[in-house]
Design goal:
Length: 154
C-alpha cells in the first residue's frame, strides 16, 4: 500500500511566502514607486499604477526598457523627483510598513508577468482634480480610485 499524497494549498500572495526584495532590483524599485505614487489607493489602484509601469516597459523607446529605468525616468513618477518630499520617504520605507508589503507583492506579480492590466494599456495617469496638458481632450481608458488612466497618449 502506498502512502497518501498530501496536497498543500499555498497562497502565492501570502506574506510568509515572500523573500525580501534585493535593493535596487526591478521588484524593489517598482514597489517603492507604487508606494510613493499609490499608497493611499486600494490594491486594484496599486495594480493599475504597476500596469502603467509595465506598459511603458513593454513599449520601450523614450521611457526605457527596464522597470528601473521607467520608474526613475526624470519627471515621470513624481515620487522620484529630487524635490518631492515622498522621495526621502520611499527610500526609507521598509517591509515593516503594511502597505509597502502589499506594494512588494504587486511588484513581484507585475515583474513576473502575473498581473492583469485594469487600465486597458494605459501609459499615463493623473490624480482626479488635476488636468495636465497632455490629458486635455482625451477620454480615460480607466478610472480607478483617485486616478484617471489613459492609453492614447504618445
Amino acid at each position: 500500500m502506498t502512502a497518501p499524497i498530501l496536497i498543500v494549498d499555498v497562497d502565492p500572495d501570502s506574506e510568509s511566502q515572500t523573500a525580501p526584495a534585493k535593493p535596487g532590483s526591478a521588484v524593489d524599485v517598482l514597489a517603492r514607486t507604487l508606494w510613493g505614487e499609490a499608497r493611499g489607493e486600494s490594491v486594484r489602484g496599486i495594480e493599475a499604477v504597476a500596469a502603467v509601469v509595465m506598459n511603458r516597459v513593454a513599449k520601450g523607446g523614450w521611457w526605457g526598457n527596464s522597470v528601473e529605468t521607467v520608474c526613475r525616468k526624470k519627471w515621470q513618477f513624481s515620487c522620484w523627483n529630487a524635490d518631492d518630499p515622498n522621495r526621502a520617504k520611499l527610500e526609507r520605507v521598509t517591509e515593516a510598513d503594511r502597505v509597502f508589503r502589499v506594494c512588494l507583492r504587486v511588484a513581484r506579480r507585475a515583474v513576473g508577468g502575473g498581473l492583469d492590466d485594469p487600465t486597458r494599456g494605459a501609459t499615463h495617469y493623473h490624480v482626479r482634480g488635476l488636468m495636465p496638458d497632455w490629458a486635455k481632450g482625451r477620454d480615460p481608458s480607466a478610472e480607478i480610485g483617485s486616478h484617471l488612466f489613459y492609453n492614447d497618449v504618445e
